[in-house]
Structure formats: C-alpha cells, structure tokens
Amino acid sequence: MKSLIKKIALFLLINGLIGTILVPLVVFYGPVPALRQMVVGSIATSRHPQVAEFFLSPEQIQAILGQPDDSSVQTALSNGQQVSLSLQRGSDRIEIEDIHGKRFTGKVLIVHEPTRVKVAVTSQLGESGETVLEMARRVGAVAAINAGGFIDPNGQGNGAFPDGVTISNGEFISVLKEDQKEDIIGLTKKGMLIVGRYSARDLRQMDMADVVTFGPPLVVNGRGTITQGDGGWGVAPRAAIGQREDGALIMVTIDGRQVGSIGATLRELQDLLLQYGAVTAGNLDGGASTTMVYQGKVVNQPSSVFGIRYVPTSFVVMPSKRI
C-alpha cells in the first residue's frame, strides 16, 4: 500500500513539473495568439507586470500587446470636428448604478457637475501611495476612483511615484521629462475632459486644473479609437473616465480576476463608455488598482488578494459648493 502511494505521489510530482514547464511554453510561444495576448495583457496590469519578462523580451511584450491605432487617435485629435460641450453649471446630482457585461460586472458613477472632480495625490508622495478610500476620506470627497499610473522600480507596488505628469488644482506635482509627450487624462479649469498625448510643456500653456498620466484615449470627438481587435491589453479589471456632451463625467470600474467577473478588454470598455454617451474618454490604471469609492465605502470588488492597492492619484468628487 505504501509503495502504491509513493508511486502515485511520484506520478503526480512528475506530471506537475511537466505541466509547470509546458504550460508557459504553450501560453507564451504556442499557436493561439488570442490566449497569449489575453495572458500577457492580464500580467501587464497585475501587481507584478515584470513576471512576463521571464519569458519574453520587452519588445516581444509590446508587439503582443500592441496599441490602439495611434494614427487614428491623432487624426481625430487634429482633424476631427471638436465636440462642443455644454459646460454651464449643471445639476449637482451624482448617480451610481451597476453594469453587467457578458463576462464582467462593475459600477458606473455619473457626476453631472464636472468642476466637482479633482485629482487627489497621496500625502506620502515619494514614500508610499494611499488607497482610494484613504484619499477620499482625507480630502472630504463624496466619491472617488483610482486615476494615473505609477513607477514601480523595486516591484513593491506601493504607488509612491506617479508616472509622467501629475497636476492637482493647477499645481504641477510631478514631471518626469518636460518635453516628453505622454498619454494624459485631465480636466480644464472649466471642467472639460482632455485626453491625448501632451508634454508637460504643452500642459503649462493650457488651462489645465487636474491631470494624470495614463491611457490610451478610448473616445475622441464622439468616436471610439479602437476600430480593430480588442485593444491589445487582454482581459483585466478596468477603470476609465469619460465625458458626455452635456458635460457630465462618467466614471467606470469593471471588476476582474474573480468568479462571475473576469474583466474586460479595452474595446469592451470603450464600447461601454460610448453606450453611456461619452464624447471623450480615457483608460485609467486598471488591474489591481481598480477601485471606486462612494459615500465612504468601496463599492466595487477590487481584485487584489492583498487588500486595496496603494496608488499615487485618484479622481475625487468634492462636495457641492451650493448652499
């Protein structure tokens, strides 16, 4: 009997080792590009994106992930008819509702007065990020969503250093390179959402109040930028912000990496924003960072098993100034 148990254990051990070797080979080098793209995209938006570099070079990862057609985005930005927004002071209502897709669930928050939305920055900049909930409570926000990306030099994932350019209440908080163009998502002082590639120098000449660095742009001048494929970033938890023609801001979180909601592609996120009437929209940091807060509580289901992720920035909805 003991001999049989040892043989079974040895058999399972050998097959486990073979599987450990073969599965990555099949996923990363096998004949199914869609599987490879989905897995690499999910890793790229996880807490440890560097894992993919054990199997693939940075150039291979970039080729697999691809990007939305940048030429179509730039054409829309430079040549397309600019949407005229009705940014006169509107209702102070905030609406929140559940969303359901074929393989995901999530939340949509609609803020009718766009000037209530600001960028909050971690109080421990350069040392540690904060959770979206902590930021919202500290600044007295009634709602919030995670915003820009961050630099993670030691793989700690603590959100201490925001990537690219960050502006909060008109003040430049961080700038990596003055003339390097980055995908940014920001709001002017009048509450107009801006997405696209801009440098810090460009932004200094614009009427910007709040900016984070992330992307890609998903909707420009009322049209989706992803016209072929799924956007190239696989299936993962997602976050985004968009703006309707009446000026209302649309904040979206899609849960992922869990039973009942595996996540969404960039194309699915884009199409959802278009359904909600977005004329401008940009993809925010997703993956384990995806968090929405409303009335002092986290209302979505963050994917991280380590608790709510620490991030450097959030888009926060401040209390109404109306009496």
UniProtKB/TrEMBL annotation:
Domain of life: Bacteria
Signal sequence residues: none
InterPro entries: NAGPA (IPR018711)
Keyword entries, A-Z: Membrane, Transmembrane, Transmembrane helix
Domain Phosphodiester glycosidase: 140-318
UniProt KW Membrane keyword: yes
Keyword rRNA-binding listed: no
Transmembrane segments: 9-30
Protein name: Exopolysaccharide biosynthesis protein
Lineage of producing organism: Bacteria, Bacillati, Bacillota, Clostridia, Eubacteriales
